[in-house]
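ok so I'm stuck.
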Amino acid sequence: MPFGSQAGPPYLRLAEIRIRGRAYGLISGWIGNGEARAKMRVRALYLAKIPRVEWDKKHFRSIKGIPGAFELKWKAEKREFRASGYDHAEGYFVMVLGYTHKQGTYDPPDWLKTTRRNKVDAQNGNYEIVEFEP
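replied:
not stuck anymore, here's the structure
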């Protein structure tokens, strides 16, 4: 389905940034096809069924320090996975970075700076925005 071709619910539709000419997006390359992707799929399907005003902060929350940025959260492989991004036209949440969090440690440690940079670059058209298939 072409990017942006669906209107109305589901309440969560995912997109990701992709470097022009690459066959895969940033999140697809990071997450792979294992447990983390399967658990993300479960989280995305759950959130797609309910209005955003009813989402719990343990699943999705705003990121302090970056206006308009949010993170999608899920657990897999004994750590917390997160995908940061922003709301895009037509109801898409565009993911700009994937990272993990365990016992107060983020991987990569510069996730906040990278999220900020990737969000600005995506909004300025420096990346392709493509639909993400969880």
